[in-house]
User: Fold this.
Amino acid sequence: MADGLSEQFNQPGAFSELSFEDRLGLLVDKEVAARDSRRLKTRLRSAKLRYQATVEDLDLRTPRVLDRSMILSLKGASCVSHHHNLMITGATGCGNTYLACALAHSALRAGHTACYLRAPRLLDELSVGRAIRPRPRPAGAHAPARAR
Assistant:
């Protein structure tokens, strides 16, 4: 807000006709926008997206196997809101990575977190996670007998 206030002082002609409430509202709007921008930058950095793709950059006019309605529904990040993961598969070179990055970017802009992983790395991380944290036994299962 300090940057916005100094901007208002440095350009008195542009802001002098506004009321105190309007000037304060501009300061608050500027602060909210700056915070949202910082949060998005942080989420983008932690997502480690390979491409800075957006859903708006996708060319859905060319004939492909992509279902336009499916892409547009995924763009809204409703699957992320319902705690679903998204895995994109297809032949090499057909744009899987670009599509994944675009959809992840859309989810990040909606305020969610995302992580881009290729299948080999995902499987490695899952196996490491299992080695560190073994799965809990189902209820009623007995612990293995220990030798004494």
In short: The CA atoms of residues 77 and 107 lie 5 Å apart. The longest helix spans residues 20-47. Helices lie at 2-10, 12-15, 20-47, 68-75, 78-81, 96-109, 119-132.
